[in-house]
Amino acid sequence: MYRYDEFDQQAVDERVAQFRGQVGRRLKGELTEDQFKPLRLMNGLYLQLHAYMLRVAIPYGTLSPRQMRMLAHVARKYDKGYGHFTTRQNIQYNWPRLVDTPDILADLATVEMHGIQTSGNCIRNVTSDPFSGVAAGEVEDPRPWCEIIRQWSSFHPEFSYLPRKFKIAVTGSEHDRAAIKLHDIGIRVVRNAAGETGFEFWIGGGMGRTPIIAKKIRDFVPKADLLDYATACLRVYNELGRRDNIYKARIKILVHEMGLEKYSALVDEEFARSQGTVKLPDAEIARIQAYFAPPAYETLPATSTAFEARRFEDKGFRTFVRTNVHAHKVPGYAIVSVSLKAPGVAPGDASADQMDAVADIAERYSLDELRVTHEQNLVLPNVKLDDLYTVWKQLSAAGLGSANIGLISDIICCPGLDYCDLANARSIPIADELQQRFADLERQYAIGSLKIKMSGCINACGHHHVGHIGILGVDKHGKELYQLQLGGSGAEDASIGQITGAGFPPERIVGAVETVIETYLSLRHGDAETFLDCYRRVGLAPFKAALYEAR
Amino acid sequence: MKLVKNASAVADDWTHVADDDELPEGKAVVVSLARFRADRDKLVGRNAPLGLRLKSNEAPSSVAEDLGRIALVALEFPIFRDGRGYSHAVQLRQRFGFDGEIRAVGDVLWDQIPHMIRCGIDGFEVGDDFPLAAFEEARTVFTRHYQPDVTGQPTILELRHG
Question: Nearest chain B Cα to A17, which residue?
Fold first, then answer.
């Protein structure tokens, strides 16, 4: 993992001092709420329905046990004892007091964490593949590049007042677990024929009210040019992106309206002029990469008899392994997903005690490392097969043993109208009802791989556009209504879901999802055909018929 | 209004001239791009410094060939959220090598000043009650920076590798 040096620490400490001054001026009335807003937002502080909300960055989703314990401490000391892991590898606290927020950020700074640029019209917290560095078949660990982008984008003087927020995601794998095609800039680490590392750039993807899949703008940006090329992309956007309408201000609209060819030509011109400005010396790349050197793995056999025996004996463990355990690049190790989708708990929520428990487990059994995922779960990236059973037992004891990763109950869900100022409809109660309706694990297995994603408003924080089944809460004449979308994907085969038709009231939406599931089960070519594959084969029509014709 | 340069309030030698006003004899004037385009020859032929006021949607590249005749560019910030002026300032300094004054006019907030300075803005027209402390703080709030900027100070990356 990256560790701050004196410069990184100083920058974050100075930011805390600056923010303390801003809060002081606000509390004394020297700043109006309007003037304070952009300042607090750039430190992750929102004003929500009931209270302030503080969003803390977990850059590219990598976290040490020490940092996780600090997140638990913040939850206990300044909040109501829990936190909410978001779809952008952040954690949100829903109940901090304004007067405490400088102290919270000061506490976080002691473990090299911050809320910098987790909101505002700036370059946001850079996100990545939660399996970075441990996934089999990865071209290269993308996290050093994420860290380089984190530093370059922090307090960027030119790009802090962009037309709209700007999200960058980086993956090092062919299999996209970072949804790079749904980002303003998506970057895939690639190697050219000469074996040199470079970057495939995708531009103008995003969700919100106008979902657009990113377009590939460059096949190969050499590593020395990474930041200059990104600068050129942003400079053209900052100048030409629309500022007359907040809903048309994202770069996806600029690229869409202007056309990729024209936008790309402007970027090329700017890049040709400014290439060489942002120097990224090889020594600096090497310095940062050194922090991400693989941990001290033991040399182990590829299989573990203890693990196999436990798997044979214990059905609960077998179930957990089936869904939550993934192949690791190092023999004898596994990647373990920790589900934050237990029944009755808002998706992505974890208590302070759970955070401490998972920190302890990571320290003892995962080589001191944790990840958070955009699907609102946690990951223990380095667990020995020999330790898997113990890890499962300990997770289960902490209420974190749900064996539902990738299944219908592993729902992505925004906070919705229970917390959020922007929401039109509740999402947490619907997620809860869905989990209850499909509580039977055998049934979940029979249904197979299925991603339900739900947003309580058009802003799409719950990624409903790319859910295999997407649910969007809207407000129709003062009543909550839920639209259903089918066939979306945020992976390398990215697609935007199609709306089935008229929305459903809260009491009927779960039934509608069940109808979709029953229809899929009746249409699929055997167990191996997933919902998404089946949908892509048969299209919307049979689902539409089942949903609406029986009315 | 007051003009602030180098964290001090200073006398302003420039006069903003509206599009339909007469040009004051022998005085340094700042005119809009529209006025500049309409009266270009007369304006560059005057025996007094010429300043140009650009709206946030008017890019410096549109007057690139005339920048050598211009001693001041005033960049308008119609609202603090409109950040086009930052890119325009960077372009004036880096792409066009403009070495006259770049002045921020309009809606400038305390906490934006450090960024503006790093982008090459060196004059600020602010309200009379705008605290000078903001400009003092801008010098010290961040000791080092990750990105190169027009001030030419070494970046954290350069400092790390001597």
Answer: B141
